[in-house]
Amino acid sequence: MINISPQLRWKHVFARFSEVAWFGKSIRHQVLLAIFVMLALGAFAAGATAVFNGRKAVNVEIEASMDFAEGYLRELVRRITAEGHLDQLDYLVSREVQHLRHARVYVQEPNGSSHMLQSSEAPADDSSADDDTPDWFEAIMMPKGGNEHTRRILVPGSTKSILLKGDPDDEIAEKWHELSALALVAIISIALLIAAFWFVLGRILDPLVELARGLVALQAGERLQRLTIPRVREVGDIAKKFNALAASLDHTRAENGELYRQIQTLQEEERKEIARELHDEAGPCLFGITASAESIKTLVSGLDDANDRAIEKRTEEILMITHRLKSMNRSLLKRLHPVSLGKVSLSALIADLVRDFKSLNPGTHFLSFIENCGGEYGERVDLTVYRATQEALTNALRHGRATKIVVDLKEEHLKSSSGTTCIIHLNVSDDGVGFSPETRIGYGLSAMRERVMSAGGTLSIEKHKPHGTIVSVKIPAQNIRLNSTFIETTYQASP
Predict the structure, then answer these.
(1) CA 93, CA 113: separation in Å to the nearest integer?
(2) Which of 59, 93, 174, 429 has its CA 20 to 30 A from that of 192?
(3) 255: burial class by Cβ within 10 Å (0-12, 13-18, 19+)?
(4) Contact 389, 453 (CB under 8 A)
């Protein structure tokens, strides 16, 4: 067992307390905690000072009461002795000393026994303190000597003597009531101050929280994000600057979006033209090569000459190469421009894309939940969703090294005063290695973000617990069909 020194143990405890109570907390929490600690320390210091001064006051009061009582009793005993009334000593003393405070008077008999003549009771106009003072407070406030502080007064000509003992209990009880009232006032005052600071800090800091949310919304591509101007002047200036920045970003983003749409249109036109050339030129050429090779194979299949066998073998090789070129041509056609785009529904288009990825990656488990999105969204929306799905699947396989990928495509209908808006919602999640916040977004994701934003949509990339990545795309689309069916398709990896 490892022995840890008390110093290191306390350092560890303090570090853990700091981690839980301070670091990572909000500014409001930290400020209120600091104010509470300062007020508590101030209240503790004030209470300690009040207790120290009260103890001195009790000690002075008891000493003064004992001096007064002793002088008074000595004069009373001298008078009783001079008048020869020693036989009525008990009665005369108990009658004359009722006004004494903080002192108890006893008569001691010759045999050593004693009995009290006067208890430390307040006069009729001063109510006695209740016996509710805690023992620890009495121990702190008890003066030197306490209740055992005794003074003896001898009675000349008598075997009796008078004992005078200090009685600080009622004085300590008074101090306890005073300090209890002050402590209650201090607790209420601290609670009210903390509540006031909570409210004031909320008025000051809540706009900053809204500012942080606004920045996140801007980062996610919400172009119309604006802040309400708070009444706090400094924070209001920040909110105004934020709105101005958001408007500037909106304008710049609109210009960039328009420029990107033009580039995207040109790019898609070039891809479409290349795909058309491949389909119209390369396709027939490959078909002609295949037909000629098949014809040659048929002509030499019935001959027995060795050269004929060699020609047949070469012909089969030409057919194999031609078949491979056809597969490559079809793959390039789909990558350049989906042939079925605009001819089938979006759900069928995405399902076909997932099937293609499954055929090329048999070791990966693909699971798709595709709602039957059969509305007329337009080629632009269909192509944006198609390219986003294509890029998300490529990244999950190439960079995430995922073994399971889930594709979720559905419609969301948002009702507002202007009508019902249809939102195409695409989620692609995987169980890959994920990404770190420091990772720079590559060209593919940047292009996908610009493509989605140019279509008026939003793109978010988040961590998928316990590991992996979630790519979420939302694109507005006009669709009058409000009733849709749900299609679930599962592609299980081959063992």
Answers:
(1) 18
(2) 174
(3) exposed
(4) no
- Residue 221 clears pLDDT 60, i.e. is over it: yes
Helix (H, G, I), strand (E, B) or coil at 350: helix
- Pairing state between β 458-463 and 469-477: antiparallel
Model-level pTM?
Answer: 0.47
Question: How many Cβ atoms sit within 10 Å of the Cβ of residue 159?
Answer: 10
pLDDT for the residue numbered 270: 82
Q: What is the sign, positive or negative, of the torsion defined by CA atoms of 201, 204, 205, 207? A: positive
With 90 as the cut, is the pLDDT of residue 211 above it? no
In the CATH scheme, what is the homologous superfamily, with its name and number, of domain 344-491? Histidine kinase-like ATPase, C-terminal domain (3.30.565.10)
pLDDT digits (tens, 9 = 90+) for 42-66: 888 988 888 888 888 888 888 888 8
Domain chopping of the chain, boundaries: 8-123+130-191, 221-337, 344-491
User: How many whole angstroms separate alpha carbon 262 and alpha carbon 238?
Assistant: 35
Q: How many whole angstroms separate alpha carbon 436 and alpha carbon 226?
A: 29
What is residue 1's predicted lDDT score, i.e. its pLDDT?
46
Residue 381 above 90 pLDDT? no
CB under 8 Å to 471, separation ≥6 — which residues? 388, 392, 395, 426, 427, 428, 429, 459, 460, 461
Helices (H), 301-455: 306-336, 346-360, 379-398, 443-454
Share of the chain above pLDDT 70, in %: 82
Q: At 417, list the tokens.
A: 């005063």
Q: Which residues of 344-372 are buried (b: 16+ CB within 10 A; e: fewer)?
A: ebbbbbbbebbebbbeebeebbbbbebbb
Phi, psi of 428 (to 5 degrees): -125, 110
State the distance between the two ends of the chain, measured CA to CA, in whole angstroms.
50
Average pLDDT over the chain, rounded to an integer: 77
